[in-house]
Penicillin-binding protein, 1A family (Thermobacillus composti), 703 residues
Amino acid sequence: MADQSNNRPQTAEEREKQKKRLLRAERRVIRRARLRVWAAVFAFLLLLAAGGLIAGWIWLSTQSLPAAFISQTSYIYDSRGGVIDTLHAGGYRHSVELSEISPYLVQATLAIEDRRFFEHHGIDLRGLARAALVNLRSLSAKQGASTLTQQLARNLWLSHERTWSRKLQEAVYAAQLEMKYDKTEILTMYLNQIYYGHGAYGVEAAAERYFGKHASELSLAESAMLAGVPKGPRYYSPYRDMKNAKDRQRLVLNAMVEQGVITREEADAAFREPLNFRPLESDADDGYAPYFRDYVRMVAVEQLGIDERLIAEGGVRIYTTLDPDIQTAAEEAVKNGIPAGSEQQAALIAIDPRNGHIKAMVGGRDYNTNQYNRVFATTRQPGSSFKPFVYLTALENGMTPVTRFRSEPTVFTYDEGRKTYEPRNHNDHYVMDEIDMRTAIASSDNIYAVHTIMAVGPENVVATARRFGIDSPMQPVPSLALGTFPVSPFEMASAFGALAAGGVRHEPVAILRIEDRSGRVLYEAKPSAVQAASPAHAYVMTRLLESVFEPGGTAHRVSAAIKRPVAGKTGTTPYDAWLVGYTPELSAAVWVGYDKARTITQAEAHRAAPIFADFIERALAGVPPKMFPMPDGVVTVYIDPETGKLAGETCPQRRPETFIAGTEPVEYCDAHDAAGEEEPDSARADQEIRRSWWEDLKRWWLG
């Protein structure tokens, strides 16, 4: 009997399965067709790209490279348009053949700058991928991927601006270099072109500048040191920062070990090897204000992001705030203030409090001997020169110039009774009685200062100092009142300048404008000011600080040399002496001491105040004396110094004192009452105060 299974009708389920099989087969056909189309398109695009690359490669090979970058002299100008310094184009160069360069330096350079130099064709795609991966993992730009050829192209023909167009041009020129020159020629050009800092271009000039020898004579240790410098001559020069330079040398040596060029033992021995650097020849004679000049270059490179090579030889114009007369006055004051044979150092920084412009900077006594700028030293305790920020905090918290504390040996308890602090006055001199704020400031009484900071809270004093631009580390402890935490002269001059400007702190400015060789503005300063304190509080503080130069004040011995209103504060520690002060036109900080924490004698400590006085008179010789402008919100009354109350006619001593309006005493002194005497007329008292000020002004004016 015949099989009837193939003739029976399909079930619905079987028909659905067959339909799905047909759909899948149709989709496979469509996918294969699409793949064939895309493969054809991809092949066409690939051929097109290859053709474009070949055409581009042929075109590039027929093009001439542009003329090399022509170095131009850059200039730094003072506020009057005079030249502070010329940055000579080209620096010191001496080209040599590759055979005249130490193999160690060649190997070190390749290991740290371009380990695949002999494998790529100008652009290292593998290096790009590796750098991108490292930067992605760290979420920062830790690694770059510019090849040695790209660096050479940039140095020869391009600026250092960070734009995509410049990057593209750099890649094109790198490719052309690889077409026209072999690797040895490119490496030779690079080593003769690269900048090693301090005016040295190329390895021969660098070997001579740093070690006083030919490039062929460099040891492994010397080569690793030099190879690390071009990455950032300002950061890695051993003349500027030996720690950074040694860290970079270690990095170079480690790279050489990883490349199998040297052994670990050789690297360790080279790192330990003492290096004999040639004394750096100063180019200070080419201009003036060398410490300021270095500061300007540092600000331009590190803060404003201007490329160092552009500054060194790009024909830029840097316009600064420096006043040549005030700078000369500063240099003369420092020179005359310390005996020629002394090893004691000094620093002076002057700022215009009205706009923050830096007018003078002296970072040491002899730039040729030592380029360290002590104006920015952050290891020096300001001592009592810090006290104005304690007393300003007190004024802002309700104390007045007649607030009284007892001056006697005192043990202060803090940290909830767990700690004690026992300050001492200079030479253990104590009044053994109550004194007021003006007396404490004039005589620099330490006991009063600690009483004050304990009353207002050390944390509030820290906050006040921060408002005035003092960013150095500080702890809210009682000793803060005596200036036990280091602050730089730069910070102190700027902070005191805010008091001179009625409580307005202007951010210090050294550079007003930078232009490139074509006159295009690369940077222009924008004024930045904050109200650090009210005008009334700043004025009362200024009136108190004037007493430092009056009879009984710690700077009274130089008051005769200053023919104008001046306020300030002295400060002395076992290692440092300061005078920070200001007039309405100028704020200045003077520091004297030794570089290596050597104690100073009393005679050496007394040199800061005469330097300050000499400087102020020289700097402002052509400026008429001016009173500090009195703002609204202050009143001046006569008080009895013994009681702090309003002075009556019978008081044997009557002192004009300035208060924040509403905080002046209202009760008259009755300790010296005599029968029949009347209270003084307030209008007459005001007239007497104004007359006293007028007499002072005439004395200052006439000398």
User: Anything to note?
Assistant: Residues 633-676 form one domain. The longest strand covers residues 345-351. The chain has four domains: 89-272, 320-382+486-514+525-627, 384-484, 633-676. Confidence is low (pLDDT under 50) at residues 138-144, 674-685.
